[in-house]
Write a structure and sequence with these properties.
The radius of gyration is 18 Å and the shape is globular. It has helices at about 10, 35-50, 75-85, 105-115, 125-130, and strands at about 20-30, 55-65, 90-95, 120-125. It contains five helices and four strands; from the N terminus they run H-E-H-E-H-E-H-E-H. Strands 2-1-3-4 form a four-stranded parallel beta sheet, sandwiched between helices. It is an alpha/beta fold.
Length: about 140
């Protein structure tokens, strides 16, 4: 019993696991009718994924879609900066083409390998890819 007269099981609050620091990377094509729609959906999907997996999004980084080499994008360079500093454990991305399109897949493989060597996990938030990654939603 605690000093408050409650059994210890009730007196102690459960300890929540510390959420893993995560950067949400959004790189989406701008539509003509609603320019921010794709980016908004990618961010919404990423936040929902993070919540389901107990991840703490510490920063949202965005780039406009179009440049195939992620190293030439300001936002992706920020992702690398966070990873190099050890500030994040994972990067959430909607799908692989957000890092680099299929026509430049060698860039994507290079970047994901670079992150993995630094202990940073790349996770895809688009439902079919997330399920393949173990998301049982």
């Amino acid at each position: 019993m605690s000093s408050a007269g409650k059994p210890q099981e009730e007196a102690a609050a459960p300890v929540a696991p510390v959420a893993a620091a995560t950067v949400l990377y959004v790189c989406a094509d701008r539509g003509t009718v609603i320019p921010s729609l794709a980016a908004d959906r990618a961010e919404e999907e990423g936040r929902a994924f993070a919540q389901r997996h107990g991840l703490l999004i510490t920063e949202v980084v965005a780039d406009e879609f179009g440049e195939p080499d992620p190293a030439r994008r300001k936002g992706w360079r920020r992702v690398r900066e966070l990873a190099a500093a050890g500030a994040v454990a994972s990067v959430l991305v909607r799908w692989p083409a957000a890092i680099a399109p299929e026509s430049a897949s060698e860039h994507r493989h290079h970047e994901t390998s670079w992150l993995q060597k630094r202990g940073v996990r790349v996770r895809y938030t688009w439902e079919p890819l997330a399920k393949r990654d173990g998301d049982t939603r």
